[in-house]
Amino acid sequence: MAPKIERRRSRAFSSNGDTDKFANIDHDVFHTGAPALSDGLTWFDCTVHRVDAGDPMVLFGRVEAFAATSLKPLAFCRGQYAEVKAPRPSLRTVKG
Fold first, then answer.
1. 64: pLDDT strictly greater than 70
2. Rounded to whole angstroms, how far apart are CA atoms 9 and 25?
3. β-bridge pairing 74-77 and 58-68
4. DSSP 89
5. For the whole model, what pTM was predicted?
6. Of 31-35, 36-40, 86-90, which one has max mean pLDDT?
7. What is the phi/psi pair of residue 58, to 5°?
């Protein structure tokens, strides 16, 4: 994914307002009803379980499905975007 597109998405989701953040963004809807970016770096589809524990309320997410890609992430730090030059190695390739 081109960093310019990722920056546009980032600004859309970080903006104030009650507008639908997914209105102008390509996305899918999972079987739980949750939206997710169509070509996102990774995603988790969860069913949410609420536990009334007074204050604060506790939410648990049961992972129903997930996926990850090898795309490079986009970072945001101290008010600026940055590209990650060397992504962390996959857990499958780490030797201990």
1. yes
2. 7
3. unpaired
4. P
5. 0.59
6. 31-35
7. -115, 130
